[in-house]
Amino acid sequence: MKIYLPGIKFIMILFLFLLVSINCQASNLFVPNFDDNTVSVINVDDKTVIKTIDVGINPNGVAWNSNATTVYVTNRGSHDVSVIDAKSMQVIMTIPVGNGPLGVISAPDDAYIYVGNVIDGTVNIINTATYDVEDTINVGLFPIGLALSENGRYLFTANVAEASVSMIDLKKKKVVDTLAVGRQPHGVAVYKSTLLVTNAEDETLSIINLDDRSSETVPVQKWPVGVAFHPTGDTAYVANRDSGTVSVIHLPSKQVKHIPVGQGSVGLTLSPEADWLYTANMFDSTVSVVNLHALMSVKTVSVGQSPIGLGFMQGGHQAIRGVVDQLQPRSVFCENKTTRKRVKIKLKKDDYPRAYWNCAKHGLIVNRGDKLEIYIKGRAGS
Asked: How far apart are CA 64 and CA 86, in angstroms?
């Protein structure tokens, strides 16, 4: 039985206790600029651009591995993915993929990245050890947004041209369900059994229960694109491109507030502790910095031309998460010894033999220098 924490490997039996000190480097935002063929790197502490990296043609999507050492950027115009070393901030590899790559996301264990190709209507599965495309899966027409279930088993693609979301079983490597949503779906996000989908033409957010496939919609503003959950799962954030706003939706009550940001807000991301939200504003070539406690934009950072995606990388650890391999999972206890906050994560039997866990998604905030205790309980497998 093996336990993987980003950057650390353990081999133990039956019961595991870890004490981890989180000492992170500076946190950065990586912002692909579609019309500049560059990526702007913003230091989130002083909120300034510290580096501009040349990548492929029409960069769009961005993802990163869990220990914040590698950044992946899709280049729609050159049909490839730029692999960036996060420390040196240089491109170290270019991976040819399908036609028109946009969305990209990293597997929970970092072994694979998944790339959606809008022209081909496919998803490429790329092995990060070799950077080879191992498999290609046909999905719906013009897949843009990608999201992974928390256990890494299912991948969801928002298919703009057919008002649907494809649900891919990554063990079987095939589409196992197609979910009907609104017109021109763009963004997708998953928290436990809830799937969020932005419907650009309808100006709505679909909220889908993945257990019974029931759904409802909430009105937002003009041309919603990016979407994200708060780490606790009770709030959704939607970037409305043509309104220049972010909609904040309290999911239990369906109450909505709107925050003015830059013009053409499309991509958005939260800091791991969910104090800050950042939007990529393609029409005025800026990034808005939103204070989520005050629910207002407090700063605007100029970047390259037409920023679309963006990704937050907390130096050293993007989130406290890991993989349990060859263990019949039961539960994970994460406690921040510095703040004395604790969460319990119940793992499912069908996660065996590989169970993924993420403390941040269950509401645990871990800051630089904090000490984290992790207890993992379960039975050893063969």
From this structure: 9
| pTM recorded for the entire structure | 0.81
- Looking at the fold, whether 266 and 361 belong to one and the same domain comes out as no
At 352, list the tokens.
């065996």
Residue 343 lies in a domain: yes
Q: What is the mean pLDDT of each run of 10 residues along the chain (382 residues)?
A: 41 39 64 97 93 97 89 97 96 98 94 97 98 97 95 96 97 97 97 97 98 97 97 95 98 98 96 90 97 97 94 56 54 76 72 58 63 64 46
Q: How far is CA 373 from the centre of its chain?
A: 25
Backbone angles phi, psi at 328, to 5 degrees: -70, 105
* Count of the separate structural domains present in the chain: 2
For residues 47 and 78, membership in a common domain is answered with yes
Peptide bond into 252 cis (omega under 30): no
- Tokens standing for residue 197: 């989908």
Nearest to 291 by CA among 252, 253, 250, 261: 261
The Cα 283–Cα 291 span in angstroms is 22
Last residue of a domain, one of 313, 342, 358: 313
Spatial separation of the C-alpha atoms in residues 366 and 343, rounded to whole Å: 12
Chain-centre distance for alpha carbon 351: 20
Longest dimension (CA), the chain: 56
* 23 in any annotated domain: no
Alpha-carbon span 238 to 2, nearest angstrom: 38
Same domain, 295 and 367: no
What single letter denotes the amino acid at residue 355?
Answer: A
C-alpha triplet 204, 209, 211: angle, nearest 5°: 160
